[in-house]
Amino acid sequence: MTYAGKMSQALAFPDEEIGCVLAPDVGVRLPVVSPQWHSLVARESAQRRVAYRYWRNRLLGWAIPRKKRGEMVEENYNQIWAAADLAKVVDPAQQQMPHEWRREGFMLNSSLTQKLHLSLMIKAVRHLRPQSVLEVGSGWGLNLLILACQCPDTRFQGVELTKNGVDLARSLAGADELPEPLLRLMPAPSLDPNGFRRIQVDRGSAERLPYPDASFDLVITRLALEQMESIRETALSEIARVARSHVLMVESFREMNDDGLRRKYAIANDYF
Question: How far apart are CA 176 and CA 178, in angstroms?
Answer without folding.
Answer: 7
